[in-house]
Write a structure and sequence with these properties.
The protein is mainly beta. The chain contains two helices and 30 strands. Strands 3-2-1-30 form a four-stranded antiparallel β-sheet, with no helix packed on it. A four-stranded antiparallel β-sheet has the order 4-5-6-7, with no helix packed on it. It has a four-stranded antiparallel β-sheet with strand order 8-9-10-11, with no helix packed on it.
């Protein structure tokens, strides 16, 4: 009887093997990175071209103009790319569909237009513009529905690297129902139109006089630009930072936290602002910079020299716990970009010679080289939607 039961068990196991193998195959396929990445490629800056690579197949499509093309930025729905390119003796913003079709260049008032950023609803582009390659830049917002450019920040110039605020949780959390300073007036946070998504930008703004300039974090609307330290928020939330310089600002996906770079502490560090205050989360004697939020807002990827060479790390802002992702003593690794599901990170590395695009999981394992070209590949940006 026991022998018969064993025989029936063996038959049952053999009958399950094909199905089990199929499930394992599906799981293995799901474990591989997929989707699309935009990046720029070229032997020199002069021929640098925006491209898109299919992560699974490695197929590359050139979608750019190929003349000083800048870092490509995906629309929120992943249907289009925007990037700067050299035209007419300046830089103009070029927009193209993800398949390379419907390419067009925005009609600009100013000669030099840089760093395009899509609004959360995909209806607008914010970028910096000026008549010369200098720091006298202003923020311009282009609306696709009307084709018009509108200056933001009032008359303020010297505004750099704009990013849209994806939500207003942080502002409500800082001073709910209270009044804050905005220019000469006092306004209440609750119920304001400018607190709606798509009506507020964060930017780096110049402060001081020529020869003694520094930078600060600015909140920008169509009519006004004001440093965060001038909003009348408590000192424990945003301490006075007039003696420090800030280089980049990155709101979390929900807008509940703001990350930024600062030389507070003696070298370049990454700080976060929450409703609990401001904290240095990468505190190290080596420089840390380029914060990139994971899609769920739990982690920040960043670049650092803490390993001797340029490497990529991630930090958990709640505890300041830092873990390596791509760091090696014999190569440089930079420009992290999270996949939409937060499981993979694309980055640039020169570990094989010239800069190429690689992909690894968030723990730094399962490394895969995506590009293998004679030219240089830079600035990967993962398509927001897709299978990855």
């Amino acid at each position: 009887m026991i022998v018969a039961q064993v025989r029936r068990l063996k038959v049952h196991v053999r009958s399950l093997m094909p199905a089990t193998a199929s499930i394992l195959t599906i799981l293995l396929l799901c474990a591989e990175p997929s989707g699309r990445l935009a990046f720029v490629a070229g032997s020199e800056l002069e021929d640098q071209c925006a491209c898109i690579i299919d992560v699974a197949s490695g197929e590359i499509r050139r979608v750019g103009v190929g003349s000083f093309d800048g870092t490509p930025a995906w629309s929120p729905d992943g249907a289009a790319l925007a990037f700067e390119t050299k035209q007419d003796g300046g830089m103009r913003i070029h927009v193209v569909r993800e398949d390379g079709s419907q390419a067009r260049t925005i009609d600009h008032k100013y000669k030099w237009n840089r760093n395009p950023q899509w609004s959360p609803d995909g209806t607008k582009l914010a970028y910096t513009a000026s008549d010369a390659m200098d720091l006298a830049q202003r923020i311009i917002v282009h609306e696709f529905a009307t084709g018009l450019e509108t200056p933001w920040g009032g008359e303020r110039v010297g505004l750099l690297r704009p990013v849209w605020v994806p939500g207003v949780k942080l502002l409500y959390g800082l001073r709910p129902g209270q009044r804050i300073g905005w220019g000469d007036a006092k306004i209440t946070l609750d119920g304001l139109d400018w607190l709606e998504v798509g009506r507020v930008l964060l930017a780096i703004g110049l402060q001081g006089e020529p020869g003694a300039l520094t930078t600060d974090l600015f909140m920008v609307t169509q009519d006004t630009a004001l440093a965060l330290t001038e909003l009348g928020l408590p000192e424990w939330v945003i301490p006075s930072r007039s003696k420090y310089a800030e280089w980049a600002v990155a709101p979390s996906p929900t807008g509940s936290t703001i990350a930024f770079e600062s030389n507070d502490g003696g070298d370049r560090e990454i700080f976060v602002i929450t409703n609990k205050g401001t904290a240095d989360i990468t505190n190290h004697r080596a420089a840390d910079w380029n914060p990139r939020w994971s899609p769920d807002g739990d982690w920040l990827a960043f670049e650092s020299f803490r390993g001797g060479r340029r490497g990529i790390y991630r930090v958990y802002p709640n505890t300041a716990r830092v873990l390596p992702i791509a760091a090696a003593p014999d190569s440089d690794n930079w420009w992290p970009s999270w996949s939409p599901n937060g499981k993979w990170i694309a980055f640039v590395s020169n570990r094989t010679g010239n800069p190429e695009v690689f992909v690894t999981d968030a723990s730094g394992e399962n490394l895969r080289q995506l590009t293998n070209n004679t030219w240089n590949d830079y600035a990967p940006s993962w398509r927001p939607k897709g299978k990855s």
